[in-house]
Amino acid sequence: MALNSWGRLPSLPAAQEIPWRQRDDALPELPIPLLAFGNGRSYGDSCLNSDGALLLTRGTDRFISFDAAPTTRGNPTPATPATHPTPAHTQVTATDGDSAYLRCEAGVLLADIIEVFLPRGWFLPVTPGTRFVTVGGAIANDVHGKNHHRAGSFGAHVRSFELLRSDGSRRVCSRHENADWFAATIGGLGLTGLITWAEIELRRVDSDGLTVENTRFHGLDEFFALNGEAEAAYEYAVAWIDCLAKTPRGIFMAADHAPAGSRARTPGKAKRAPFTPPLSPVNTASLSLFNQAYYHRPLPSRGLTHLLPFFYPLDGILDWNRLYGRRGFYQYQCVVPRAARAAIDEMLHAIAASGQGSLLAVLKTFGHDASPGMLSFPMEGTTLALDFPDQGEATQALFGRLDAIVASAGGRLYPAKDARMPAYLFRQGYPQFDAFGRFVDPRFSSNFWRRISA
Amino acid sequence: MQNILIIGATSAIAEASARRFAARGDALFLVARDPVRLEHIGADLRLRGAARVATFVMDATDSAAHPAMLDAAEQALGGIDVALIAHGTLPDQKACEASVELTLATLAVNGTSVIALATLIGARFEARKTGVLAVIGSVAGDRGRASNYVYGTAKGMVDIFMQGLRHRLSKSGAQALLIKPGFVDTPMTSSFKKGALWAQPDTIARGIVAAIEARRDVVYLPGFWRWIMLIIRHIPERIFQRTSL
Ligand SMILES: Cc1cc2nc3c(=O)[nH]c(=O)nc-3n(C[C@H](O)[C@H](O)[C@H](O)COP(=O)(O)OP(=O)(O)OC[C@H]3O[C@@H](n4cnc5c(N)ncnc54)[C@H](O)[C@@H]3O)c2cc1C
Ligand SMILES: NC(=O)c1ccc[n+]([C@@H]2O[C@H](COP(=O)([O-])OP(=O)(O)OC[C@H]3O[C@@H](n4cnc5c(N)ncnc54)[C@H](OP(=O)(O)O)[C@@H]3O)[C@@H](O)[C@H]2O)c1
């Protein structure tokens, strides 16, 4: 079966799949365009390359080195010998400083990093909503997490990487060395060449728990008020919204890493969606029921939770994307400037009016840290992410209305979630589009890129 | 913590197995012929939790080098608890038919080099009355088939040898385990079309680690291959000749 992206939209023509296992190997000499394929967690066509070749980077998944900065804390706990934690509980030992640098091959999954380094007291400085993405993919989309207001995007924590180009050149890129290639490749959608390895920062955590505070809200004003307070007080902040309700309502979640000694229950093993139903069980009626139940579920206002279910609520159901049925689904994620609150309101109204719902509508604000990439998605403002089962023309018509709102608010859409944005919207949303062109490797391309640059 | 020697440590199946050993804190001695990849894998396993990792560059067919390699392993580890022999090549059968040289080389890599190593390791384990020798054979060694019988011959030779060695070692405390994987998605099979019977290297690795722990004699991995091969071994020769397996 040909590779597809996470949205599982009816397959585009296949690409030749080439396993990529050794970081020192030369790129294959082929007459067709190349593209790295990480773990296929992008929703649309930015990780696809019809009639070209996909380099399957998951085969390069080795750790290379790990450097913990010497401790900067007052009195570190005495060093305990490297214990191998029992699966039930993680005992974090604070023997090093607050940050460390991990160098690894680009096909390492964030999940691998967590598995190996969380028990030793290290976590990702920024993580997207799934841990099943590769380091290369996280850089190429300059992904963001629930702590953007504090930590910026993933790229802000990348110290260096090696870029392999089709002319055989290898460049080590950082803020100091080949800084222009560094900026082009972070958020560069895989178009500047192949990232073979990267060095990223890890951050200290004192436990594998989070203290979470949940608050129900009614209306966007309440959301923005809660969010303003939470951004000052908490490292993580995000809201789930029920966009089928008449006035938008939702649950606001704010969290911090829990202090040493906190013991959260370790989550169970992931379950798998058993098959792809021919018709999606996700429709307006089931969505509305789900959203109501989700909104009204008993919710502790404050509590301790393991960090995995907080950051990765959907990773508990492997292949959940199949539940959307054989027609697949679209994500729509935009960001609009902070001042353009009205645009969010307008979009929510347009969605409610269309009757097309979204199971996992997420609302969050991005902080003012500038993203390091020329084409990075995050910019200061409010981001709204929604998913829609493909209902043909009605869905496309709704997207057209949302596009117009985003465009007039001076916002942009996220290529990692996109399979359909019009070229004008990309060019308008990403002012460095033209300057980026000269960094594109002449032998690399993607479906997304052909669509946008046509 | 156990002390583990892996020969053919750059193989995908061996690497996946080594990650499982490293995660539980074992000490590893890795042998392969490509020094750069060996170093890459060694660094990775250290970070994954291996108590110690040492490497040794050797071509498995260089039997003159075997004793020194084993001495170095025993010295670095302070005694070997488990030895895993994983190296191998899968040549094109048609090319073998056209070349006696390639046929004999295939037997050397997959057959006699393994037997040479198993002879030395078996003797050391027998003398110490402990140790598990795990060798990766193949379902291809269960019956000669037109599509890969040169490779199959070598794997079958190793099978018979391991039966005898196991018989002999049963009087000591040592163990001889033969692992017979089915189709595994590794560089060895990168040109094959993959279907439902194919397994990932980590699935095989999990089975290898479990079989070593349980001190099994022979395991098919994944386990369903035992039933497939039971049938294939029992198809009468006349009927078998009309198949295109
Ligand atoms: C459930 C879920 C939740 C998500 N939540 C978030 C979120 O909160 N925030 C967020 O930002 N994103 C989120 N995403 C999107 C996801 O983080 C990104 O799409 C990510 O880039 C996927 O990584 P991947 O390894 O699967 O890469 P792929 O999807 O396979 O590829 C993504 C891009 O990276 C390029 N690439 C991959 N490897 C390399 C390499 N070695 N060298 C050069 N280019 C490379 C590809 O060419 C492609 O352009 C989510 C996705 C899912 C499925
Ligand atoms: N893949 C399958 O479907 C399958 C099925 C049944 C059994 N097996 C067996 O499983 C074992 C592991 O294979 P794999 O699937 O993991 O394939 P692999 O990744 O291709 O590994 C084969 C390894 O053998 C090494 N090797 C070959 N000749 C050597 C020599 N003369 N000296 C030292 N090392 C040598 C190779 O080293 P270089 O990289 O340096 O060449 C390579 O690391 C093999 O014994 C194979 O026969 C595989």
Provide a quick synopsis of the model:
Chain B: Keywords: Oxidoreductase. Chain A is an alpha+beta fold and 454 residues long. Chain A has helices at 110-117, 135-140, 148-151, 179-185, 219-233, 284-296, 307-311, 341-354, 393-408, 423-429, 433-436, 447-453, and strands spanning 16-19, 34-37, 53-56, 63-68, 99-105, 122-123, 158-164, 170-174, 194-204, 209-218, 236-242, 249-257, 271-272, 302-306, 317-318, 329-336, 361-366, 381-389, 412-413.
General description of the model:
The complex is a heterodimer of chains A (454) and B (245). With 454 residues, chain A is of the alpha+beta class. Chain A folds into 2 domains: 63-70 and 92-204, Uridine Diphospho-n-acetylenolpyruvylglucosamine Reductase, domain 3 (2-Layer Sandwich); 209-422, Alpha-Beta Plaits, CATH 3.30.70. In chain A, 23% of the residues lie in helices and 24% in strands. An 8-stranded antiparallel β-sheet of chain A has the order 14-10-12-11-17-18-16-19. In chain A, strands 4, 5, 6, 7, 8 and 9 form a 6-stranded antiparallel β-sheet that branches. Mean pLDDT of chain A is 89; it is low at 72-94. The longest helix of chain B has 29 residues, at 100-128. Chain B is built from 9 helices and 7 strands; from the N terminus they run βαβαβαβααβαβαβαα. A 7-stranded parallel β-sheet of chain B has the order 3-2-1-4-5-6-7, with helices on both faces. In chain B, helix 1 (12-23) links the parallel strand 1 and strand 2. Chain B is α/β, with parallel strands linked by helices. Classes of the chains: A alpha+beta (454), B alpha/beta (245). Bound molecules: flavin-adenine dinucleotide and NADP nicotinamide-adenine-dinucleotide phosphate. NADP nicotinamide-adenine-dinucleotide phosphate binds at residues 8, 10-13, 32-34, 59-61, 86-89, 109, 136, 138, 181, 183-184, 186-189 of chain B.
